Amino acid sequence: MRKYISILLITCSLFSLTGCEENQQTSTDNQTRDYTNLFSALPEQIIYPTDNPYSKEKEILGELLFWDPVLSGAQNVACASCHHPNFGWADGRAFSIGSDGVGLGPQRYGNETTPIHSPSIVNMAFTGLTMDTQLNEFVSGPYFWDLRATTLEEQAIGPIKNPVEMLGYHYSEAEIFDEIKYRLTTIPEYIDLFSAAFEGDDVITETNIAKALATFQRKVIANNSRFDLFLRGDISALSEGELIGLNKFIDVGCADCHNGPLLSDNQIRQDEKVIETLDAVRTPSLRNISQTAPYMQDGSQATLNDAISLYEDREDLGVNINEGDFNDIEVFLRTLSSPVYNHIPERVPSGLPVGGNIN
After folding, report:
1. What angle is formed at CA 166 by the lines to CA 221 and CA 194, rounded to 5 degrees?
2. Is 349 a domain residue?
């Protein structure tokens, strides 16, 4: 996957004189820099696991299940209730409202919230990629803020069994999939969809639901940002200001954790908490970050600039961002955005509201 290309940067002498004077304390005036020791472009195609190979039928089924509240305890919330394309496949909230929620995004209301910010599902197909991953090599996870799921299939069914997210309190974790199987077997369209996607007589199972959901989630990728184009060799893909921001991102220490194809090492550092009052969590990917406000695991930062400012003079984290760096780094981070799949089905086989109680 990694392309060993040396990217030559425009020298500071080609920038405006003012830019040179303002950045003379950093290495943004280096004549050359090779970024391939820190970053690589995302793959241009998805690699699927051998135990869950791709099929169009499975993808179609998974997308409908993702939007269908039939998978929730009270049949009122879907995966898409908190992972919606209008909010970068997250929900635009600090903390999500799941099983008793009504409405969409910041306007959603309910009595119980999740204890942590809802992450986007964009590029989950690439979770686990490193600089050393080979072009056609499949990698997987781990997933969730605490890395508790080892596969995307395992992740996909986690919220269904969580009372705050989708399960509610009408069924136990042990009961819910028997109930879901019963519901799905009474819907002729789902019987046909499962039969088309899987072989065998007993195809409506927890395992197959997980496989279908994971197959759809692997479709939701953003792998053609201007930063990807830059890493693939098009040095004109980034402007001079964006290059300055990229260099500052590296020089102040951001890239020590936010590196690799996803700009995340996917590690948890218990002794390096950004927000001291919260448990440590994995390093999040910065891909498409401009589309997934609010920020941080508690959703406490409304804007990218706010999130960057948390790292001002944080030498305890190995990061030393000055206030004058905030805007430059934000300008670079916005180059990480790429078009992403955003289709919303008009209906789901259960006949329930698409996406649950979100309207």
Report:
1. 65
2. no
To the question of whether residue 343 is assigned a binding role by annotation, the answer is no
Answer yes or no: is 257 a known binding residue: yes
Residue 313 belongs to some domain of the structure: yes
Residues 252 and 313 in one domain: yes
The 8-class DSSP code of residue 95 comes to S
Q: Is residue 345 part of a domain?
A: no
Task: Give 164-193 as a DSSP string.
Answer: IIIITTSS-TTTHHHHHHHHHHT-HHHHHH
Distance of alpha carbon 291 from alpha carbon 299, whole angstroms = 14
Distances (CA, A) of 250 to 35, 63, 244: 10, 38, 10
Residue 6, pLDDT > 90, answer no
Q: Please check if 83 is assigned to a binding site.
A: yes
Q: Is 79 annotated as a binding residue?
A: yes
- Per the annotation, does 258 bind a ligand? yes
**Least confidently predicted of 10-14, 175-179, 197-201:** 10-14
Q: Helix, strand or coil for residue 314?
A: strand
**Residue span of the structural domain in which 262 resides:** 12-45+223-336
Cβ atoms 290, 336 nearer than 8 A: yes
What global pTM score does this model have? 0.89
In a domain, 330, yes or no: yes
Query: Are 182 and 70 a contacting pair, CB within 8 Å?
Result: no
| Cβ burial, residue 225 (10 Å; 0-12/13-18/19+) | buried
Element (H, E) at 247: helix 240-251
CATH of the domain at 240: 1.10.760.10
273 pLDDT more than 60:
no
Residue 85: per-residue pLDDT: 98
> Do 198 and 71 have their domain in common?
yes
